[in-house]
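> run fold mannose-1-phosphate guanylyltransferase
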Amino acid sequence: MTNIILCGGSGTRLWPISRTLMPKQFVKLFSDKSLFQLTVQRNKSFCDKQFIVSNSEQYFLALDQLEELEQENNNYLLEPIGRNTAPAIALACFALEYDELVLVTPSDHLIKNYKEYEKVVHQAKALAAKDSLVTFGITPTFAETGFGYIEANGLDVKAFHEKPDEETANKYLTAGNYYWNSGMFCFKAGVFLEELKKYSPIIYETSLNAFKNAKCDSMIRIKHEDMEKIPEDSIDYAVMEKSSKVKVIPSDIEWSDLGSFDSLYEELPKDENANTVNENHISCDSKNNLIYGNERKIATIDVNDLIVVDTGDALLISKKGSSQKVKTVVNELKKLDSELHNIHLTAHRPWGTYTVLEDNANYKIKRIEVKPGSRLSLQKHFHRNEHWIVVSGTATVTVGNETKYIRPNESTYIKMGEVHRLANEGKIPVVLIEAQVGEYTGEDDIIRLDDDFERK
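> ok
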């Protein structure tokens, strides 16, 4: 069986922890493991391989985190733009044999009851082997208005329902045959594609065309123009709500989609005052607070039921119960053309990381770390000059037609407009300080002439 792991989404409801370029599924929230890593570990006992569906930025995050797990036998499909779950799953299924069983899972869910989870997955496999399209219905523990519901008659699906109001949610909870829609599925790749072709033929045909035109080397890269032609739709609307082959497995697996800071608070360890455990937190008569921050000391005095999230470049303070409004904050940041919704102070790149140490008008200072055997793109800038000072390791620096080695406590200078490249040919990380000076120091002032990672 193949685990198709859907890595799309930016997790805006957990801003400022989650950003577009470091979404919540890759943030290490639990015992130094990310939700993505927990997903892989949870499913590897009954899946022979993983099929990661993501964009190019998330691909490198997934690759790094799989290397940490020493997890091999992985396949990757890169989408240039997102078109929701139906096309994403279809594109992956086109790469598999007809009878291959697939377990489709989001990458950002938490499941704590592994024993029960293993049980329901085996039930799903048995039904999928008989050509059913299986979904997992989460046994509700309260009247949740933020989830869609599945109405069941035994293992048969009677209907899918949109997110209800509170009164309707309470009725669902009392009825006992309504389940939260988990977004997890199990079926044969070929059976799903047949049902997609039957009920959503345009999505099927445009996805098939995109797959046929894709570039396939170490991964499957879908072309932008082909992806644009695929209608955007979820697997629920495109197939599951229409097919007669759908079954639902009631699943009491201690599941959470961690869709808000309130739900995250419930899952994190607490101290004797019901504050989340944090070495940087100094509490004075404060109770029932979510405190998140790794960079500065956070002191609270006589406050209860708050959410305090400090990420160095942004501070969020909210009442518990109101954290769903974080999406409003993200929308405001977008209106202001701020990068705070998009990227952290430390940004992860396929070659390593950079951390912004200071950012002011006319100059920016970064700490750059390049992994052994990696190099940045061959590039130039139109609006800034750069000074590089190596702190550790030996950097291979190309400026124009000249290539030289820069060692610790040595530096180099790149003039505005000069073609240049930074590489690490050694066995240890290269760490350097970069000072950018110019009228504009934005990340979009990069003209890539050659790139090992095929970025534009």
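The first strand starts at residue 2 and ends at 6.
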